[in-house]
């Protein structure tokens, strides 16, 4: 088995990488405001990363124990197979093309308002992950970068399972295998598998949520707990929003332990996030981009509080029972419709039901808050992937409370249950958000899945040869005579526009519909700088997004 030092290094590396991007974003925002110049420097980012890593090096402690267990070994083996295969046969997912990959580049000039990266006006979501994505792809290439990041994520996750095992069962080594089984199931939840080895941030949300929960359970310093909570919320805001009730409870129950050192330690991160969102509020009228727009009423975003009407329940009763029955409907996720995995998703409802049952039985407030967080998610979204971090928190809190009863159930029964779950989990290897029907044919032969073996050999040859500039050259994008590029929201052309902006320095504008023009351009809540990038231009200049 791998040593505890490797698990510790993996978690420390990724936490430092993402925390460093927050400080980099603060510096970049200030630089754009003061000097009115673009800001992009891998050297500056690397220096910030080294400083942050030095400051955080003592925060993550993993006691060494030599016990190996079958679930952990199997998870590592299957995880590495999934990572290597997926990264080699990497296909651009829709979200990768329209947000995750371009966003890091556009941040360098986002507050100069000279370019616009359209994604239904979600351009301004806090780019906590997207900045390091930019540098890693430029340095390593797409496939090597995603292989690199996904491997560290897996090792961080396994390290978390070891830490929780020692906390929950400090004096019962044989019972620690139940924690490994739990983490095995969590890793292979179909909705999570769908985002493994892509540039989506769902798994990071789970990792930071578990890290914050571990800090709370072990009563680590208030500063470190708050630090990980902030990263958990902002690494993926569409998931972090629904973690707020349980995280607020974590903070309130630890207020008595707060110290000046805690406040000083977390201040740079708070300042970085706060400054960005204050500027966002001034510019768009909503400090959270499209989230909770029912409160802020920015004309750039729908008024439905981020609720996508394709998903989720309607009415009070449906909201309350949604974490149980939602899994069985076609409104839970596009993946349940395409891959018929809805019955596996239904297993996740046990954590929701158990939260209510344990609260009634023990009157422990934490489980009432946990239950309320589920209801909050169902009310505002109900979309499957956006509550996976909440599922992870619920699983460890419930297992910690239920640990005295585990011997009565028997480890053999747990093994049998996990074996059955594993069979279903293995089917999910073929699930990937990149297969949602948005893969551009020019990247792969028409009607040929990127996961066939014929694509594997091709992918092996592309390691180190698939940086952004390589992709730009391969696409052979037509050079336009105009001095600017106009795109429609969320189109495939967004990625091509990003490459044209990066390598031909052409500004990107968003084409507005007549209705949007009236609503947005007439509003006083949207800054004049943004409006300059949104004025309707000649339709003949439009890059077709369909």
Describe it for me?
With 546 residues, the protein is mostly helical. The chain contains 27 helices and 2 strands. Strands 1-2 form a two-stranded parallel ribbon. Helix 4 packs across helix 5 and helix 15 packs across helix 19. The longest helix is centred in the first third of the chain and has 32 residues.
Q: What is the percent of helical residues?
A: 55-70%
Write down the Rg: 23 Å
What general form does the structure show? globular
Quaternary arrangement of the chains shown? single chain
Number of helices: 27
Mean model confidence by pLDDT? 82
Q: Structural class of the secondary elements?
A: mainly alpha
Largest sheet: 2 strands, parallel
Q: Report low-confidence residues grouped into runs of 5 or more.
A: 436-451, 538-546
What is the strand tally? Answer: 2
């Amino acid at each position: 088995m791998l040593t505890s030092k490797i698990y510790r290094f993996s978690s420390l590396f990724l936490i430092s990488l993402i925390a460093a991007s927050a400080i980099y974003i603060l510096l970049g925002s200030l630089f754009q405001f003061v000097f009115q110049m673009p800001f992009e420097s891998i050297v500056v980012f690397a220096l910030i990363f080294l400083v942050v890593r030095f400051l955080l090096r003592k925060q993550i402690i993993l006691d060494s124990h030599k016990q190996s267990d079958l679930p952990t070994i199997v998870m590592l083996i299957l995880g590495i197979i999934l990572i290597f295969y997926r990264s080699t046969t990497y296909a651009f997912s829709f979200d990768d093309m329209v947000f995750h990959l371009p966003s890091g580049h556009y941040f360098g000039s986002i507050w100069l308002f000279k370019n616009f990266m359209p994604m239904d006006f979600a351009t301004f979501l806090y780019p906590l992950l997207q900045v390091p994505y930019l540098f890693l792809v430029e340095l390593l290439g797409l496939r090597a970068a995603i292989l690199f990041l996904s491997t560290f994520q897996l090792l961080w996750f396994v390290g978390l399972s070891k830490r929780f095992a020692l906390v929950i069962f400090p004096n019962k080594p044989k019972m620690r295998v139940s924690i490994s089984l739990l983490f095995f199931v969590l890793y292979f939840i179909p909705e999570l598998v769908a985002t493994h080895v892509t540039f989506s941030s769902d798994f990071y949300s789970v990792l930071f949520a578990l890290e914050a929960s571990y800090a709370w359970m072990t009563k680590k310093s208030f500063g470190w707990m708050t630090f990980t909570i902030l990263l958990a919320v902002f690494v993926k805001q569409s998931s972090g929003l629904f973690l707020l009730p349980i995280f607020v409870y974590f903070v309130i129950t630890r207020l008595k332990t707060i110290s000046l050192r805690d406040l000083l330690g977390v201040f740079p991160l708070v300042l970085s996030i706060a400054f960005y969102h204050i500027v966002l509020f001034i510019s768009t009228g909503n400090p959270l981009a499209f989230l909770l727009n029912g409160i802020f009423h920015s004309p750039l975003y729908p008024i439905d509080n981020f609720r996508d009407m394709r998903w989720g329940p309607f009415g009070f009763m449906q909201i309350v029972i949604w974490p149980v029955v939602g899994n069985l409907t076609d409104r839970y996720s596009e993946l349940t419709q395409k891959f018929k995995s809805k019955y596996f998703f239904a297993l996740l409802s046990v954590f929701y039901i158990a939260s209510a049952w344990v609260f009634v039985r023990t009157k422990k407030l934490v489980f009432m808050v946990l239950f309320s967080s589920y209801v909050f998610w169902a009310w505002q979204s109900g979309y499957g992937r956006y509550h996976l971090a909440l599922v992870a928190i619920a699983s460890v809190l419930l297992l910690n409370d239920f640990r005295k009863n585990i011997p009565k159930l028997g480890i053999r029964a747990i093994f049998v249950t996990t074996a059955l779950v594993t069979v279903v989990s293995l089917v999910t290897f073929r699930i990937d958000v990149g297969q949602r029907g948005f893969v551009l044919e020019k990247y792969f032969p028409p009607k040929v899945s990127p996961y066939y073996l014929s694509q594997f050999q091709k992918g092996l040859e592309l390691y180190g040869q698939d940086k952004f500039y390589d992709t730009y050259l391969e696409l052979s994008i037509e050079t336009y005579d105009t001095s600017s590029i106009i795109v429609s929201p969320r189109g495939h052309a967004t990625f091509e526009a990003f490459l044209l902006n990066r390598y031909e320095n052409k500004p990107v504008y968003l084409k507005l519909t007549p209705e949007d023009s009236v609503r947005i351009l007439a509003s006083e809540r949207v800054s004049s700088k943004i409006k300059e990038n949104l004025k309707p231009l000649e339709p003949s200049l439009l890059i077709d997004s369909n």
